[in-house]
Structure formats: C-alpha cells, structure tokens
TrEMBL record:
Domain of life assignment: Eukaryota
The protein, known as: RGAP1 protein
Name of the encoding gene: Racgap1_1
Recorded coiled-coil stretches: 21-80
GO biological process assignments: mitotic cytokinesis; mitotic spindle midzone assembly; Rho protein signal transduction
Length: 141
C-alpha cells in the first residue's frame, strides 16, 4: 500500500510538473512573440529617427543658407551710400541690433536651431541604440 501511495504521489507530482512546464512554454511563446513585436517597433522607430534627423539637417542647412543671404543683403544695405539715404537712423540701428543678435550668432560654425531642445539628443541618436544578438546566442546555447 505504501509503494502504491508513493507511486500515486510521484504520478501527481509529475502531472503538476508537466502542467507547470506547459504553462512555462506558453508563457515563453507569448514573451517571444512580444519581443519580436517590440523589435519591429524598435526598427521602425530607428528608421523614423533617421528620417527626421535627415530632414532636420536639410532644414538647418537651408536655414543657414537663407541667413547667409540675409547677412549679405544687410551688409550691402549698410555699405551702400544710397542705403544710408534710404534708411533712417532708427532703421539702421534696428538692423544693426538684429544683425548683432541674430545674424552674428547665426553664422557661427556648428550652430544648431534654438527651437529644438537637444537635451535628449543622445537618447534619440539611432547610432546609440544597438541590439547585440551575441547575448541571445550565449543564453540560448
């Protein structure tokens, strides 16, 4: 009777372990599916960041080009003798103030648009985001 009871206890324990194993495999399948979906989202996010960075660089280049043109026009207005006759003293001072504040800083090399907060630049840099599959290979081996 004791042997039969031990076999029954062992059989019940095996059944519980099989159920636990089945639940663990199901959970693993769900987690792997979720991981795959997140990898796809990450890939799309990286691509979107790259596209937006390219757009931003193009816009900044265009802004710098337009600011250089504006600086040239300003300098031309200030140098030409007819400019001093056309512009009043107040207009010249306003242009000088604008040139000193806006255009002088605009032509500084490496300047970025102040409209964009770059405090999280390193967080969004697609080059900083990497996924190394060698870690997975070690774990799965």
């Amino acid at each position: 009777i004791q042997i039969a009871q031990c076999f029954e206890a062992t059989r019940q324990r095996c059944c519980r372990l099989e159920q636990d194993g089945r639940r663990a495999r199901e959970q693993l399948a769900r987690v792997e599916a979720e991981r795959a979906a997140l990898e796809v989202k990450l890939k799309h996010a990286r691509n979107q960041v790259e596209v937006e960075m390219k757009k931003r660089h193009r816009a900044e280049a265009e802004l710098e080009k337009q600011e250089r043109k504006l600086q040239l026009v300003f300098e031309s207005l200030m140098r030409e003798p007819w400019g001093s006759g056309v512009l009043s003293g107040e207009q010249r001072s306003v242009l000088s103030a604008l040139a000193g504040r806006r255009l002088g800083a605009a032509l500084a090399p490496g300047r970025r648009s102040s409209a964009v907060d770059e405090s999280c630049q390193s967080l969004l840099s697609h080059s900083d985001i990497s996924y190394d599959r060698t870690e997975d290979d070690v774990v799965r081996s």
